[in-house]
Model the fold of this input.
Amino acid sequence: MKTRTWPDGRLVVWAPAKVNLFLEVLGKRTDGYHELETLMVAVNLYDTLVFQEDMSGEIEFRCDDVTIPQGPTNLVVRSALLIREETGSFGCGVKIWLRKRIPAAAGLGGGSSDAAATLAALNDLWKLGLSPPELSELGARIGSDVPFFFHTPMAVGSGRGELLTPLSTPLPLHLVLVCPKEGVSTAGVYGQLQPSSERRPIEPILEAVSRGDSGRVGQLLFNRLEATACQLCPAIAAAHEAIQTEGLAGPLMTGSGSACFGLAPSRTVAVEAARKIRERFPGRVYVARSTP
Ligand code: C5P
Done:
């Protein structure tokens, strides 16, 4: 995430989206979560959050997207309440504005990134002195994907996705993101997932990443949740087809969907493919790249 402090003390944070280049499910755990092996990379599609300290002690939240929950179920509000409670800083207040660009329920980690941005921003604004591992641990209590945003730009996730090994050599990847209008519930996809006896190894794609071979990365993209999510949301297959028609590598669904992406060899190719997909696909289409 990128941060800037304005002269009047307001803090602005740009919270990136992520895509999963690889996601294998290793099994269901006794706590109801699924054990994962995943490779995640941050991409340059950002929500913007502005934080202003409020001496009244209130936590006030506004979002330009009225379809997003504005109350205590919102991950931004939950993060603010959690960090205040954990640090015993009950007198601290804040006004938070969120400008939403990352589609919700798309598997792009938008809500998780907003949560991570909130924890980091309030740690600064309220001078709480929590370390990055402490912030990441608080994030894991909000959602499995939140800790990744303290380990950007690229990391391997295990456990339920919250145990992270950062990768120091991120590839420059050019993506076209295709987001159906319909979102998908993460719990719904995991709930319908049938156990599989197959196991796709993560090592080949990690080797391709470490060699900087983005062409090979394109051949090794994989997501175990995709077939199940397609059954719940047919628009995912349509997004897939739209990307495939343009000859991009992949396509692959990210996270539990519904967004899909394809990899292009250059930004020029990505821009042209996105233009053609927009002409016929009824959803949002973005050109993006992995963040440096
Ligand atoms: O962690 P998070 O709140 O984002 O997870 C939402 C839901 O997705 C969980 O309640 C669970 O049903 C499912 N999930 C899972 N295994 C994971 C991550 C999420 O089963 N590794």
